[in-house]
Amino acid sequence: MTQCKFKKRELTDQLKIEIDSLHLVAKNYPEQLIGKFIYVYWENDNKWYAGQIRKFSESTRKFSIVYDDNQQERLDLTNQYFFFDETARPTGKYGKTKIEKTLMGT
């Protein structure tokens, strides 16, 4: 992950509350996350790495993440710390989804 874009961000109580909301979306509406740019927390590095959610597998309930350095990983985002990359351009035809607008307060 040395070539990957990352962010230093403290894992505050407020951020954990926001992440809990995202866990509900990942569990109940996984298709809403496809194409979204996110930061995923890697505890051992104490960093948030930038990537994009590309696919979701119903059978494994895991998301396929492609990081900025082209490394790929399959994660269960219902128990992973992550948040939306607000600086990335929207990937959907209409921008943010209704769920995303509600979660992000926009």
TrEMBL record:
It comes from the Eukaryota. SUPFAM superfamilies: Tudor/PWWP/MBT. This is Tudor domain-containing protein. It comes from Stylonychia lemnae (Ciliate).
